[in-house]
Amino acid sequence: MNYLNMLTQLGISSAHPGGYSSTLKLLDSISLKPGCSILEVGCGTGRTACLLAQKGYQVTAIDLSSEMIDKALHRNKMQQLNITFQVGDIKAIPFADNQFDVVLIESVTNFVNAKLAVSEYYRVLKPRGTLYDREMICLKPLTPDNLDDLLSFLGITQLFSAEEWLAVLRSQQFTNIRLSDVKLMDERADNDEHNFPDEYHLVSEGAYSNALLWQTSLQYSEIINRNKGSLGSAVMVGEKPQSFS
Ligand SMILES: C[S@@+](CC[C@H](N)C(=O)[O-])C[C@H]1O[C@@H](n2cnc3c(N)ncnc32)[C@H](O)[C@@H]1O
Fold first, then answer.
1. Domain of 7, in residue numbers
2. Which of 176, 184, 134 is nearest to 24 (CA)?
């Protein structure tokens, strides 16, 4: 059972560093144009997308997993929202160039070739559009064994430092590149699930009785705890310039 499968089966929402409270904090700290168009990439069970739609933004959201998209569509229906959710790959985003005012990502770019993904975010953003991407980052080097364990557990090939993330954004033509909310990684934000419980239980049938899921969940906690002082998270921000080549 891999990590992403575990999240899908358990229907875990806000599966990103800092959880739902970090999403609320980010949205409080930025001023988005009323009604602007937002693409959420790797939306998982759709909790953030629904929050954005409730705030009056025009939301489109994609995820590679059709099971995640089914869960997001269920949430969309229960909340009587009108979000376009569709299956799509971050490495070839299924939309034309220059479509969105904002591209928002919460813990997804780490799972793919980051340079390719960031070039896709840039492509679909409108000139003057803004990218917000919250990812796990490396604050202090991990021991080689711990790094190997983490990468193979998550099924990823890279764990960038803040500086390396900035370089990825610079490799596109993003301007006004910056990092915000840089902090140490906590496994799940303190009290996040208690303070902001997800009212929809989007658990797949039989998941609770699948021992492999719980094993994977425990393994995740163990790996994050073991590397607590080295792992962090940050929001990478960049703007697509008005005139671009
Ligand atoms: C750690 S979860 C985060 C989900 C969601 N953003 C959240 O915060 O709850 C990563 C998500 O990325 C999706 N994903 C992984 N690879 C992807 C790809 N190539 N294209 C689109 N989505 C992808 C997974 O299906 C999963 O829903």
1. 3-238
2. 134
